[in-house]
Amino acid sequence: MARVTPGTRNNFTQCLAGGQSRPRHAWQTGAIAMQNAGQYGRIPDSVKGGSALRRGVTRRPPAAERFGFPRMNLRSRETSLLMAEVLDVAESREVTMPTAYGFARYGGTDVQEVLDLDRPTPGAGELLVAVRAAGVNPMDWKIREGYLAAGVPLARPVALGREVAGVVEEVGQDVDGFSVHDEVLGTVAPGSGGFAEYALVTASAAAKKPPQVSFTDAAALPIAAGTAYDAIGQLELREGESLLINGIGGGVGVAAAQLARDLGVFVLGTGSEEKRELTEALGATLVPYGDGVADRVREIMPNGVDAILDLVGGDALRSVADLVSDRSRLLTTTDPDAAADVGGGGVERDGRGAVLAEIVALVADGKLDPHVSDVVPLDRAAEALASVETGHARGKVVISVP
Question: According to the model, what pLDDT value does residue 390 have?
């Protein structure tokens, strides 16, 4: 948070007059003041919209003529009175930089912090999106911990969050099919993050949001539902077969259960007893996890299952591996090494916008419910991340951005 002080008065005057001194906070505050005053000339579209003002526009201000103001004679009495009135209003207002939640160094929860990041500029093949909601996934805390540093290199500080829904503010070069003001969902571009007021989204991994789908539901789809969609397709499930989802209670498991159920597949899922109601609402059968889980599955399916989708990894994966005879139909989203040890493999992500469009169409048609269980405002992002990191979330957790 920054407040314009009397010391910025001269610099701000130079800025409006077309000079080279352009303090970020001063020009933003002055633009707001002039919009409120109403009689000082045309305010450009880039700052006239409520969302731009509310979120804090951080682009370098153009010369006065680009604002739509004539070059001013600063010696005139009229201009002096104008600037005095504008600056009196400006100095009474606070201006915020675009807010984000992320980290500046790898580590545990103690490295998470609120960040003031400049509004990004979309590169080729990218969209600048004013974020309305961001999905929370296990990948987020793993990135923060540095587990994925080799595969997901980041210039820090950086916002957390890999999937968003929002409104297109700018379109980068070499992008077709998207326009400013489109409501979209997608995965963030490399180096960007979704727990923020603005995020860069890879255009080829984005889709337009149908009007009947909320931003919170849409934000739950690119990573979690997208992974489930790819996994179910890769397992080549057929009507009458059985599927065990190892760790059914999270966003991927919830989506996978529905997709498999609609194919006519009998779905079982491991999870805690507190997730029984959710599991049964998905049309699946809960199998309490822990020691003896394989025996409990065999009480229901004496001959084992036709396929396994593992969302847990480690010993939990190994404990159920013998339930499937064809190990090519054992896939994991979290632990490819453990899966390889028992003859299984990993889920291969598609990630194309065309696939995401198919997924969001299922939501629009009422065939897929992302089961958003908790919507948390951006200023409580730490709570949202903690609920996913500890495994206590039931369904999908989404962060809302005002």
Answer: 85
